[in-house]
# Entry
Amino acid sequence: MFMSDKAKETKKNESDSITDIIISNHKHIFHKNIENFFLVDYENVKLDGLNGIENRKKTDSICIFYSKNADKMSFDLHAILNNTKAVISTQRVRVGYKNALDFQLTSFLGYAISQCRENCKKKVDFYIVTKDNGFNCLIDYWKKQGVDVYMVRSLVTQDEVYDELEYKVRKLLEYEEEEDIQFAMECINTCPTKTAVNAAMMKKYGDGKKVSKVYQAIKPLLENKS
# Structure
């Protein structure tokens, strides 16, 4: 199909827009005092993923990945974005391919890690704000490279959202659903014995294989129970 020069130029500008944002914000989003870097999968978490943004600091950088499938913002949220002390940047990603946003966010994470290593004075922790467990393989990869990457559901860090028990349970059940994590913590906190924990899980799941999987994972945290 014939495409006019103007249409070609429009298409080129659209395809280059992400690169332009990266270049224009280079020194800003990777300034030397950054300590926490958040990459928000806005398509996945929507407005809930931005909970806590009002508490972020000058040492935080937040990059929001959105697409035409998820680009709505309330006036209140717009005001909060303008008033937060954190560095805010946005990436409008191209869609039309399966997992398009995920691939672009993943690529940008590698770029962000290299830029923070080069420009930031302190070690930077990275947070992918999403409910998509598919990112766990990415987190495992970077941890093997000595980079701390976490998956969270809103703009909070590990230290802020987890007490010691919750942190341990989440580490042991990192590939399980949120409902399973919450239930495991409830069992640990309320069941007086190991037998009671096992019985509570059997009642909930009714599946011996599932119970065994979750129970064995959290067993190290049951040592104080008879």
The two ends are 74 Å apart (CA to CA). The longest strand covers residues 60-66. The beta strands are 36-41, 60-66, 87-92, 125-129, 149-152.
